[in-house]
Amino acid sequence: MTAAAHVNSWYAASAAPIDGFPRLEGDLQADVCIVGGGFTGLSSAIHLRERGYSVALLEARRVAWGASGRNGGHCSTGQRADQEDLEQRVGREQARRLWDLGLEAVRMVTGLVERFNIDCELKTGDLHVAAKRSHVDDLRAYTDKLRDDYDYREARFVEREELEQMTSSRRYHAGVFDAGGRHLHPLKYALGLARAARDLGADIYEDSRVTGYTEGEQVIVRTDRGSVKARFMILACNGYLEHLSRPLAGKIMPINNYVLATEPLGEERARRLIRDDCAMSDSLFVINYWKLSQDRRLLFGGGESYSRRFPSNIQDLVRRRMLQVYPELEPARIDYAWGGTLAITMSRMPHFGRLSGNVFYAHGYSGHGITIASLAGKLLAEAISGTAERFDVMASVPTPTFPGGTLLRWPGLVLAMSWHAMLDRIGH
Ligand SMILES: Cc1cc2nc3c(=O)[nH]c(=O)nc-3n(C[C@H](O)[C@H](O)[C@H](O)COP(=O)(O)OP(=O)(O)OC[C@H]3O[C@@H](n4cnc5c(N)ncnc54)[C@H](O)[C@@H]3O)c2cc1C
After folding, report:
1. Residue 87 CA to its chain's centroid (Å)
2. Contact at 8 Å (CB) between 152 and 146?
3. In tens digits, what is the pLDDT along the chain, a chain of 428 residues?
4. Cα–Cα distance, 348 to 117 (Å, whole number)
5. How many whole angstroms separate alpha carbon 302 and alpha carbon 245?
6. Residues contacting 398, CB < 8 A, separation 6+
7. With a threshold of 0.70, does the pTM exceed it?
8. Does the C-beta of 255 come closer than 6 Å to ligand 1?
9. What is the torsional sign of CA 183, 186, 192, 196?
10. Looking at CB atoms within 10 Å, which of 86, 145, 245, 398 has the fewest?
């Protein structure tokens, strides 16, 4: 049985538990060894098993213990970076491929949910709102661009008057409603993926932290109590990679983000906050994001920190932000507040690639990981089985190294992030 529990969150309180997986004891062999049991690792396991590879997945704690079991649950369309930015960086043709992969990623999540019958409260709609007057024209122009250049017609601009019908918050100036976006209960989704991987024959081990590996024709992956010898290895540790791979550490920065769950608010009160039961987020640099739970709590996320430890007052930190959006929630009790760690890149695009011919990685989703990490598993399986074209589209986006090289949480970057957070506060 396993040592670690899932973080004390509304998700953990409302998801049906899954039987624990054994700890790795002794030495074994597999075609592919996957390190990390979040969306990236679990989706890889599913897609590799479907292609007939034997899979050993090693998770340091419990499956979905990391960001995958703690996040906001928003499945937005496209990539984390916007298309204008991508066109400039990789050209129009490649930007188009990335956009298409972003759409495929949302379809993939809904496809996995249907195929494996995962009860994870999957719902439709994503409303992104302008926190500053100066953001309104950008949102409008971007919606037009997606329609004109990408033939994307699911997103529509929402004027302030209409927005006021859609939410009781008076903080926002306009919005974009994307009917192509989805939202879900992330821990239920992740545990559903784990069950599917297990049923397809993947060998999953919990409480099995990988302490190191040796590259070669066969990669040897070691834990304290055993090892896996494999033809291929996938590093799927994202914000929890730590020192496992020094060449990769400089490409991603771990940051912490926080979520709270109010008490159940009742249908009427909940629908005043979000009329259409969609996911909502705003345009601040340190983004606020929120949605309703099945039992009509508000799940509100926001606030960041960059050190290893979480602050002791997560609830206060997030509640303050929530009350700026919905002052009427002042009397609402907060039942849960928790944090998680994700990885960002300098480019805000994920970092996909190979360390050598047979060691693959995908991480750095920069807060856009439900869809893209799920897709990553499929692209990794394609690449391992010899069709790397689509994996290479993702891998072709340049990922600059953080100044400071492989030092994690570089102090200069922390300063820069704090500067942007301050601009949010003073309204620039
Ligand atoms: C608070 C919060 C809110 C977020 N909101 C959203 C959102 O609304 N929408 C969205 O798309 N994305 C969101 N994200 C990001 C999203 O959750 C992540 O991008 C995604 O879960 C990454 O999945 P993963 O499998 O790559 O990593 P993780 O789920 O973090 O999994 C990595 C796993 O690797 C394991 N591991 C690490 N080192 C080792 C080792 N040495 N040996 C064995 N195992 C190891 C860890 O224990 C962990 O379980 C949010 C993240 C956070 C933290």
Report:
1. 23
2. yes
3. 445 789 999 999 999 999 999 999 999 999 999 999 999 999 999 999 999 999 999 999 999 999 999 999 999 999 999 999 999 999 999 999 999 999 999 999 999 999 999 999 999 999 999 999 999 999 999 999 999 999 999 999 999 999 999 999 999 999 999 999 999 999 999 999 999 999 999 999 999 999 999 999 999 999 999 999 999 999 999 999 998 998 898 899 899 999 999 999 999 999 999 999 999 999 998 899 999 999 999 999 999 888 888 999 999 999 999 999 999 999 999 999 999 999 999 889 999 999 988 999 999 999 999 999 999 999 999 999 999 999 999 999 999 888 765 445 555 666 666 656 655 655 54
4. 32
5. 29
6. 89, 90, 347
7. yes
8. no
9. positive
10. 398
Residue 247: C-alpha distances to residues 244, 253, 367, 392, 400 (Å): 9, 13, 22, 19, 13
Place of tokens 């903080």: 171
CA distance 312 to 305: 12
Q: 373 alpha carbon to ligand 1 midpoint, in Å?
A: 9
Which strand (E) or helix (H) includes residue 24? Answer: none
Regarding the beta carbon of 301 and ligand 1, being less than 6 Å apart is answered yes
Phi-psi region of 249 (alpha: psi -120 to 50; beta: other; left: phi over 0): alpha
The answer to whether 158 touches 174, Cβ cutoff 8 Å, is yes
**Residue type for position 318:** V
Q: Scanning the structure block, which residue is given the tokens 């400039």?
A: 88
Where do runs of H (alpha helix) occur along 330-388?
369-384
Q: Is 209 in the pocket of ligand 1 (CB under 6 A)?
A: yes
Residue nearest to atom 33 of ligand 1 (CA): 36
Instruction: Kindly give the number of the ligand 1 atom that is closest to the alpha carbon of 239.
Output: 30
3-state DSSP call for residue 94?
helix
Would you say 369 and 256 are in contact if contact means Cβ atoms under 8 Å apart? no
